[in-house]
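Lab notebook: predicted structure, single chain.

Context: the supervisor wants predicted structures on file for every construct in the current expression panel, including those that have not yet been purified. This is the next one on the list. No modifications to the sequence; it matches the entry in the shared construct table.
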Amino acid sequence: MAKPIMAKATAVWLVDNTTISFKQIADFVGMHELEIQGIADGDVAAGVKGFDPVANNQLTQDEIDAAEGNTQHKLKLKFNAAAVGEEKRRGPRYTPLSKRQDRPNSILWLVKFHPELSDGQIAKLVGTTKPTIQSIRERTHWNISNMQPIDPVALGLCKQSELDAAVQKAAAKQAAEGKVMSDDERRKLVSTEQSLEMEAEPRIPTAIEGLETFTLGGGNSSDLDDPREEDKDFSDADSFFSLPNNDDDEEDDQP
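Prediction complete. Output recorded below exactly as produced.
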């Protein structure tokens, strides 16, 4: 549902000049009910001047009267023919000046790790033009030798959810066209939420030679099979802790 312009100032005016419930005002301006209560208590929007929605052609007095008489009535924004089509503007994404120098690096990252994305999707994600994307794909960009692939999410050029949605859409399009993806490409289609919920895979040592006979004791395996060890009786504590006799020590002790 369309929201009024200057929503907070409109909420201030409705709180000060009408008896409409906080819930009705919150639904109309797109705010939380507790925020509207905070406006009434003076804790929120302090110093904000009220914006009259009736004088500014956003509400009719009849609509306000109906809401005051029925707490279940939902305020409806007055139809404005001049505002049709203004809810969603089409055009390239605005990129701050401080981040524009990193935009080619993010394009290189998307081209390298998500080749399934179309030029139009990349242009929408990072706010660039198709000729720039094409030059990076063909490695004819004037600064291609100095460019490094950097994740556009890490640069703040787009949100992770936006990137995940674009990748999923590209994958669905490829599946509809009958293209078969490799295992590496399927792994890239996992969203951030799914990847965070995955359990860590156990690491396998790269050098596994000799692990079949590996023991923590470091002794020979033949010692474990010595039948003499099995015949010993360790029920007596003294016999358990007794040390073997050394013939050389006995000879040294004799006078």
